[in-house]
Design goal:
The chain has 319 residues and is α/β, with parallel strands linked by helices. It is built from eleven helices and 17 strands. It has a domain of 191 residues: 3-Layer(aba) Sandwich (Carbamate kinase), CATH 3.40.1160. The strands form four sheets. An eight-stranded mixed beta sheet has the order 3-9-2-1-12-16-17-15, with helices on both faces. It has a four-stranded mixed beta sheet with strand order 8-4-10-11. It is globular, with a radius of gyration of 19 Å.
């Protein structure tokens, strides 16, 4: 790998899926999630030992879905929390889990680098159409009968690309990272930073009140791309539960794409070949980052992260 510039360390932003910590279809206990967190850190430790500046963004889809269930079950006893607050809450405890696991792994590898979690606010537009047209799937699969009950209570529940009934919430487009300068200072000091957890807590500027929260979830891959863009990172890695980007995924004609140019990725997306609601948003986020920075983006499965950074696995998107 070459340095992005000769005057300092390279910066990598690594987006870790919420399903990497709580695999889809599994009811993961917190012990399971700590174990999955420890298993996810190989490529991150490798980059840290190679003296990259690193910022980790993690998803929270399964976890924030669980928090909504806790809210519903306990609503007779304690007041429910809004979705934006639950995003910040999950960013706190998932950040703690990743931070602790990563520091232990770095110490075992002989590194003294520090790790810090920044609870991050992400600017969105208060009139973003996505706020009134929910499309973002969160939480685990539920039986159809339960889905119908929630629909009668006014909640949006739909079938995802795999036919599973799941909650759907608004997901506005991230415009900027509120704590970008704090993150930049920590990275320049060599700290490994965990930021934009769960995509960050969405906020907008109210003319009278200042910054106000929004009851929504920001897509963590899009937030990671905005973060990578504004940090002028040379590498964006999106770690998911599929080993590469495929055309015709799930069909007999499926094939993995090892390298994609921005133009090729945009063409496939416009043709609907990438799977809306699954891989397409990840490719869009990666493509936007590469187009804006001329950096490199990688999409791959968690366990193949090390090999993907070396160009041996996954899909690499280049300018």
């Amino acid at each position: 790998m070459t340095h992005a510039s000769s005057d300092g360390p390279r910066t990598a932003v690594i987006a870790l899926g919420g399903n990497a910590l709580a695999p889809s279809g599994a009811r993961s206990t917190i012990t399971d999630q700590f174990r999955h967190a420890r298993m996810s850190l190989g490529p991150i430790v490798d980059l840290a030992l190679d003296e990259w500046n690193i910022c980790i963004v993690h998803g929270n889809g399964p976890q924030v879905g669980d928090e909504l269930i806790r809210n519903e079950l306990a609503r007779a006893e304690v007041s429910p929390l809004p979705l934006g607050v639950l995003v910040a809450a999950t960013a706190g405890w998932i950040g703690y889990m990743v931070q602790q696991s990563l520091e232990n792994a770095l110490r075992r590898a002989g590194s003294s680098r520090e790790v810090a979690t920044v609870i991050t606010q992400v600017h969105v537009a208060p009139d973003d159409p996505a706020l009134s047209q929910p499309t973002k799937f969160i939480g685990h699969e539920m039986p159809e009968a339960r889905a119908r009950e929630l629909q009668q209570d006014g909640m949006t529940v739909k079938q995802d690309a795999r036919g599973r009934w799941r909650r759907v919430v608004g997901s506005p487009k991230p415009l900027a990272i509120h704590e970008i300068e704090v993150i930049r200072r920590l990275l320049s000091a060599g700290t490994v930073v965990i930021a934009c957890g769960g995509g960050g807590a969405p906020v907008y500027a109210d003319p009278a009140l200042g910054w106000e929260g929004v009851d929504a979830v920001v897509d963590k891959d899009l937030a990671a791309a905005v973060l990578a863009r504004d940090l002028q990172a040379s590498l964006l890695i999106i770690l998911t539960d599929v080993d590469a980007v495929y055309v015709d995924y799930g069909r007999p004609t499926q094939r993995a794409l090892r390298t994609l140019t921005v133009a090729e990725a945009e063409r496939l997306d416009s043709e609907g070949a990438l799977g809306e609601g699954s891989m397409a948003p990840k490719v869009r986020a990666a493509t936007d980052f590469v187009r804006r920075t001329r950096g490199r983006a990688i999409i791959t499965e968690l366990r193949l992260g090390r090999e993907a950074v070396r160009g041996e696995e996954g899909t690499t998107i280049i300018a």
